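Issue: copy button drops trailing tokens. Both records pasted manually instead:
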Amino acid sequence: MWYAGGLKMDKVDLAALGASASSSPIPLDGATLDLDLFLPPIVESCGGADPMKLRIQVGDAFIGANVPLGDPPLSFGFFGSFDVGATIALGTSAQGTPQMNVVMDKEVLYHLEMVSITKEFEPSKAVFEGLITKLLTDQLSKGLPGLDKLNIDLPSLDIGGLLPGMPAGAKVGLVLTKLFRASGYTVINAELQ
């Protein structure tokens, strides 16, 4: 996903991420967020008694934001690192699709450093850095709305139109048999169906 750019987000409305304008010291109406992970996320289970209890770590994440606060608007950029515990398991959707379920812990460890701000706001850089850090801390104290539990469908492949003589709608799917950690990797054993 990281190599394909699936973890890069541009101009995401902060309200869509669950940020509350009423609790923010900065007006968030029309505010957008950009996210670019300069390094791929790391999933590790080192030293834990339960191998399915993992830590998801993200480093060198660039977070940019644009806030319509005056003319010119406030734009700033942070580099951050994040560390959160998670548990993974196999499951099935209501429609019977095999899934991998990831449940995140509530506590997120993080470090932020502001690296850019609109020139006109530079004298207040420390104030904005403190406000943004407080806003993020308050938001993370509520958990990760929308990200606290991820149910990732493992797709099937429709081969009905690919191979001559196959009936329409014929699919090849996975039957998940086991999920485990081995040599630092998360391994899913599956059979084709």
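Record 2 (pasted manually too):
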Amino acid sequence: MTSPLIPILFLDPGVFVQPLAAILGMYGIVKVTGPLLGRARQRGYDGASAAEAVRLVISTPTGLVPDRDLATELIRALHPRQWRGFDAWRTGWPSTELRVVRRRDELAWEVVANRQIADQVGHALRTLYPGTE
């Protein structure tokens, strides 16, 4: 009686190596292609977003008492909370810049974002700071 392990030991190693190499190669392609496609889609979104950049200068009403909690809520409201897109390919996370600028010898906040996020910032401002322009 012969053992069933003996014929397996004498097989050509190419029988095992080639399918294993094909499986590992496909796994590597999947792992590399996903992030590259994500980066390409984000770059497409950034390019389209830069074409419609909006600069909002926030001027607070006179007599507004500074409130740290409201300022924190406004900064949280700048986060888009979801991917945005211009079409099926150009999707990604919008970039938003919050700056402090000097206007008419006063410090003011300036938000630089694309049109989609500018609407969201406007709603957040009207909600958190009524009377803000």
